[in-house]
């Protein structure tokens, strides 16, 4: 099944995506349904939990996922995948919707009808009180959204730390300026914490806390300005000297100039400082729930919507299929979670089925798998995660459209036509080459074909990234 420009196409075996009224699965012996606190950071890299004491404590009590992969490593597509459990080709959101691009942002999400088939809506229909505080989707227009008992969100093209518009339950947006009290992580956090404190402890709840941090410009809260970390952003792939085995868009990038390392380290420190406020609110939520007596029945889920490359392969942003872009920090702790490091590949599309499964709520159709068994100590049966990206011709986006497949061992990517009639491919053995320095697509054609076939079987749209002919 594929989706092109917001329309599902495919065989007669189309999956029905209409959300039916779910019900909680319960018996006389089942415990009361659990609560959920879902924290979604913005553009946070892996190995950046050094200053996040509360997230670290969650990881020490619960499960830390070492191979959490974002299928489409860009803000809005990732958030749409989280809310629906569907890949971009099924939820209609390929991009952020910047410029005149019709394939992304909240407009694509709403046009495709995805606001009517999210897992928060399924939870609400099953009796949960639900609340969103922070960033919803790029270009959100401030309208009322189904599935949310309480909805406090940024309005407009982008969220910000200061100077932003903020709506509560679809009311006329209120503008926040540049005072210390306007710092958006604290505005969202304080309103979320007050909401938690007002809840009836007899009714289950779901909190979705989505601060802007640590998205660029990585502005720390006033009390965190100047905080630094002893960790470094740099990896062996930083400013890669030989990129002759990389696709043309990477080869076209020059080596970084002298001084770029210092600049990126300063930005890395700013990311660290900006995350301190995010972490403080997680601690505040825990304290509030402890006072209410609901902490022990609450799952905490921490995830980033995508990562940043920090100069690996001469690239400093996201959207690319490399590890520093698609791999994110992810932690889940709660009543049934065993403390463990999970090495199996998981994805943002797994969150919807996992939360509904743990809640005992009738599932919605998703592309993901429930991780409830993994959280209890079991294994997950899956071959890999689909990677997909659509280039935005209306912006300066220089990442060509691609699709690929990420397994526990390999990362494979096939790009669309580069304009010269060439479709390039990349293949890396992550066990032998974790920093993706040597492209082995040409030397292991059978493995490349196996993963290429897996990508198309998982839903890669051949009209966007054509498969080989012949």
Query: Structural class of the secondary structure composition?
Result: alpha/beta
Q: Judging from the principal axes of the Cα atoms, what is the shape?
A: globular
The share of residues in extended strands comes to: 15-25%
Tally of contiguous helical segments = 12
Sheet with the most strands: spatial strand order:
9-8-7-6-10-3-11-13-4-14
What oligomeric assembly is this protein in? single chain
Major beta sheet, specifics?
10 strands, mixed
Rg, rounded, reads 21 Å
- Total count of strands: 19
Q: What's the average pLDDT? A: 91
How far is it from the N-terminal to the C-terminal residue, by CA? 22 Å
- Any low-confidence stretches, pLDDT <50, length ≥5? 1-29
Helix content: 25-40%
Could you please describe the fold and organization of this structure?
The chain has 470 residues and is an alpha/beta fold. The protein is 25% helix and 18% strand. The chain is built from twelve helices and 19 strands. The chain has helices at residues 53-61, 75-84, 88-91, 105-111, 119-125, 184-198, 248-251, 260-292, 323-326, 351-359, 372-375, 445-457; strands at residues 2-4, 7-9, 35-41, 63-65, 68-69, 129-134, 150-155, 164-168, 174-176, 205-210, 298-304, 327-328, 330-333, 340-342, 346-347, 385-389, 402-406, 410-415, 425-429. The chain has a ten-stranded mixed beta sheet, with helices on both faces. A four-stranded antiparallel beta sheet has the order 16-17-18-19, with helices on one face. Helix 6 runs parallel beside helix 8. The chain is globular. It starts with a strand and ends in a 13-residue tail after the last helix.
């Amino acid at each position: 099944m594929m989706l092109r420009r917001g329309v599902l196409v495919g065989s007669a075996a189309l999956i029905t995506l209409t959300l039916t009224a779910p019900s909680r699965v319960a018996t006389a012996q089942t415990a009361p349904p659990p609560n959920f606190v879902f924290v979604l950071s913005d553009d946070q890299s892996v190995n950046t939990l050094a200053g996040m004491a509360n997230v670290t404590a969650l990881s020490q009590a619960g499960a830390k996922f070492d191979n959490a992969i974002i299928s489409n490593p860009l803000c809005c597509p990732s958030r749409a995948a989280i809310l629906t459990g569907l890949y971009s080709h099924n939820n209609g959101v390929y991009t952020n919707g910047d410029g005149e691009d019709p394939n992304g942002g909240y407009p694509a999400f709403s046009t495709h009808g995805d606001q009517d088939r999210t897992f928060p809506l399924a939870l609400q229909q099953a009796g949960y009180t639900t609340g969103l505080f922070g960033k919803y989707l790029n270009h959100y227009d401030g309208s009322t959204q189904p599935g949310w008992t309480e909805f406090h969100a940024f309005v407009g093209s982008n969220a910000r730390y200061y100077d932003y518009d903020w709506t509560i339950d679809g009311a006329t947006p209120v503008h926040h300026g540049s005072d210390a009290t306007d710092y958006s992580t604290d505005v969202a956090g304080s309103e979320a914490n007050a909401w938690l404190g007002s809840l009836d402890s007899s009714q289950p709840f779901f909190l979705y806390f989505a601060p802007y941090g640590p998205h660029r410009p990585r502005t720390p809260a006033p009390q965190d300005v100047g905080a630094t970390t002893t960790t470094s952003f740099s990896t062996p792939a930083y400013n890669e000297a030989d990129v002759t085995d990389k696709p043309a868009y990477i080869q076209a990038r020059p080596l970084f100039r002298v001084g770029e390392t210092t600049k990126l380290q300063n930005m890395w420190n700013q990311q660290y400082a900006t995350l301190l406020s995010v972490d403080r609110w997680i601690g505040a939520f825990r304290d509030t729930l402890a006072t209410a007596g609901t902490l022990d029945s609450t799952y905490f889920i921490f995830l980033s919507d995508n990562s940043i490359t920090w100069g690996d392969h001469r690239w400093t942003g996201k959207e690319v299929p490399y590890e520093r872009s698609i791999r994110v920090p992810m932690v889940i702790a709660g009543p049934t979670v065993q403390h463990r490091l999970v090495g199996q590949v998981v994805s943002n599309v797994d969150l919807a089925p996992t939360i509904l499964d743990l809640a005992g709520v009738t599932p919605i159709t998703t592309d993901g798998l429930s991780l409830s068994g993994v959280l209890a100590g079991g294994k997950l049966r899956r071959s890999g995660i689909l990677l997909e990206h659509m280039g935005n011709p209306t912006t300066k986006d220089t990442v060509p459209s691609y699709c690929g497949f990420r397994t526990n061992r390999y990362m494979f990517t096939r790009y669309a036509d580069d304009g010269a009639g060439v479709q390039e491919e990349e293949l890396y053995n992550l066990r032998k080459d974790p920093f993706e320095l040597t492209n082995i697509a040409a030397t292991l054609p059978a493995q490349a074909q196996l993963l290429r076939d897996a990508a198309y079987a998982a839903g890669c749209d051949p009209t966007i990234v054509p498969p080989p002919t012949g």
